[in-house]
Design goal:
Length: about 290
């Protein structure tokens, strides 16, 4: 029986132990871990995966692109895909710094409490890797998204890139540079998801509790203080004002299930490409 091999490409000096453990727990037979991967080294590594097996056996080799630098990982993912030709390819997954699995789990969690289509959703810290993906998934599912950032230019650029991926979605940039602007952005929001930098409070608890239309608030920051005041890191559908709240670990169970299911699905064929939308579909199927 042909063994399942996962090739882990990571730009960090040491490949992520988190991603390695999840891969092993997902049933991979052999894990080939590569750290300090330079962009110029990607194609030879991919060709080594492509040319050693043929026919149906190709589906038993797959590539996982990780690392803490999401922008570098995205370039590595593109290099991997450009190395393929015709049917000679292997399946590939991008989840650098957990960006795709975290975003997917957060949006699915929000959808448990309010229909995504037609909802007003505010993504705070929306220009970061996770924030962009959260905004993208919400917009693609029909939410009216406000992508908030301290910089209007960065927010506008992020919205433009998301529209290029999703088509004419309802997504608007918003610069949050003072308390009045912040409260204005949150008016009538049904969903608020905090994706800001670790250890930075984006919204205080009183503001969250006074949002009369809010149905769900999710804080993806696991480092105190909470990004959204009043949310504990382990909260899972815990009442907070008019809404329910999730902390980073509160959505972590679904994130982990999604990560494992995504890795397992890589070996169903040799042509799967798992990025934000594909991983979101897996998370939705898990529920």
């Amino acid at each position: 029986m042909t063994k399942r091999i996962l090739i882990q490409l990571d730009s960090d000096s040491q490949p992520s132990s988190f991603d390695s453990v999840v891969a092993i727990d997902s049933g991979v037979d052999h894990l080939l871990r590569h750290g300090r991967v330079q962009l110029s080294e990607v194609v030879p590594l991919v060709h080594g995966a492509m040319f050693t097996r043929g026919g149906d056996d190709l589906r038993n080799t797959a590539i996982f692109v990780g690392g803490s630098d999401v922008e570098v990982a995205e370039k590595m993912m593109t290099a991997c895909r450009n190395a393929f030709f015709g049917p000679v390819r292997v399946s590939i997954m991008l989840d650098a710094n957990g960006c795709n699995t975290t975003a997917a789990a957060a949006v699915v969690a929000a959808g448990r409490h309010v229909p995504i289509a037609g909802a007003k959703a505010v993504v705070l810290g929306g220009t970061g890797p996770v924030g962009r993906r959260v905004a993208q998934l919400l917009a693609a599912d029909g939410a009216s998204v406000v992508l908030a950032s301290r910089s209007h230019d960065r927010a506008s650029q992020a919205c433009q890139e998301i529209n290029e991926k999703t088509g004419e979605a309802s997504i608007l940039p918003f610069a949050v540079d003072n308390q009045a602007a912040l409260e204005s952005s949150l008016t009538d929001a049904g969903i608020v998801i905090g994706c800001g930098a670790a250890g930075v409070e984006l919204v205080d608890q009183d503001t969250i509790q006074n949002l009369g239309q809010l149905k769900v608030a999710i804080d993806l920051n696991a480092v105190p203080p909470a990004g959204l005041g009043g949310i504990g890191v382990t909260d899972k559908a815990k009442p907070l004002g008019h809404a329910v709240a999730y902390g980073a670990i509160g959505v972590g169970g679904l994130k982990m299930k999604t990560h494992k299911a995504a890795v397992q699905s890589l070996f169903e064929s040799n042509d799967r490409v798992l990025d934000a939308e594909e991983i979101y579909a897996i998370a939705k199927a898990i529920g």
